[in-house]
Amino acid sequence: MGKLDWMDVSDLSFNALLLLEKMHLDYLPKMDIPREELAVALKGNPAVEWYLRNKTAGLNSWLDAVKEENAGSAPTRERIRQAEIEVLENMNDWLVYVVNPEKYDQQSFLAWDSRELREIADFQNKRVLDLGAGTGRLTLVAAQEAAEVFAVEPVTSLREYLKKKSRDRGYSNIYVVDGLIEAIPFPGNFADIIMGGHVFGECCLQEYREMLRVVKPGGKLVLCPGNNDCDNEIHEFLVSRGFQWSSFLEPGDGEKRKYWKTVVGSSREKG
Ligand SMILES: C[S@@+](CC[C@H](N)C(=O)[O-])C[C@H]1O[C@@H](n2cnc3c(N)ncnc32)[C@H](O)[C@@H]1O
């Protein structure tokens, strides 16, 4: 995926990195951030470096290597700011989530037709989980009919945003909780419907196993949108596990695929 431009980061303080979650930091080495720019930016921001190193111990050796490769003399203030912006631009979506969730909520691609979700899942009186709930695009559709919706979201500021949005809209059946798709914070056989939009696929098998564990026998798994419109590894994985799929339009962002599957079998042999 190319760089996103959901937010102009040119005026943003580099201290915004202090709002990132551990799961962001764990992913940092896999990002396309130019290492020299990161090293320069950290030279000007020792408190940020301290945060990265102390929030997640796994980053220490990676940061040591990044710094060693780019030892050199002290950069000017201008050079540091240039490097800061380069780093910030490479984490545009994360920064929107932690600094300004409303910006995400305003993205045109969220205006897809809610019938795309309703026609593959009957939420009436069901217990529903929304994994990676974000600003609640799927949660709020389900909550109109479901008995209860548990919106699982690992980013603190998104959880706060969604709690307020749910309250402001008068919902009393939405419960916003911390958690990850690969470690769902609920017991086995808990939910009638488990859904997620734009969240599945970093670690397909682990995520799928977690969803299978938590869904009730006879329950449903729904990924909407679950993938771009292409036959990639995520698609092959889901189809090989018996998911059905179709495509629909995300305004301004093209065709996406949605996937759904009814889970059969007892709690031991769900599949
Ligand atoms: C592109 S947004 C989608 C939000 C919402 N589902 C939607 O369709 O608008 C991805 C969301 O997944 C969350 N997320 C990222 N990694 C996650 C993980 N491992 N488990 C659960 N949620 C995750 C992000 O914080 C973000 O809110």
Structure, explained:
- This protein is an alpha/beta fold and 271 residues long.
- The protein folds into 2 domains: 14-99; 108-262, 3-Layer(aba) Sandwich (Rossmann fold), CATH 3.40.50.150.
- Helices cover 37% and strands 18% of the residues.
- It has 12 helices and 7 strands.
- A 7-stranded mixed β-sheet has the order 3-2-1-4-5-7-6, with helices on both faces.
- β4 (191-196), α11 and β5 (215-228) form a beta-alpha-beta unit.
- α2 (35-43) crosses α4 (60-69) and α2 (35-43) packs across α5 (77-89).
- The protein is elongated, with a radius of gyration of 20 Å.
- The two termini are 31 Å apart.
- The mean pLDDT is 95.
- Residues 97, 110, 131-134, 137-138, 153-155, 158, 180-182, 197-199 line the site of S-adenosylmethionine (SAM).
- S-adenosylmethionine (SAM) is lined by residues 97, 110, 131-134, 137-138, 153-155, 158, 180-182, 197-199.
Give the helix proportion (percent range). Answer: 25-40%
Q: State the domain count.
A: 2
CATH class label of the largest domain: Alpha Beta
- How are the strands ordered across the major sheet? 3-2-1-4-5-7-6
Bound molecules: S-adenosylmethionine
User: What form results from the Cα inertia axes?
Assistant: elongated
Under CATH, the homologous superfamily of the largest domain reads Vaccinia Virus protein VP39
Number of helices: 12
User: So what's the oligomer here?
Assistant: single chain
- CATH fold type of the largest domain: Rossmann fold
Supply the helix-strand structural class.
alpha/beta
Low-confidence stretches: none
Tell me the Rg in angstroms.
20 Å
Biggest beta sheet summary = 7 strands, mixed
Beta content: 15-25%
CATH architecture call of the largest domain: 3-Layer(aba) Sandwich
> How many strands in all?
7
What sequence of helices (H) and strands (E) makes up the elements? Answer: HHHHHHHHEHEHEEHEHEE
Mean pLDDT: 95
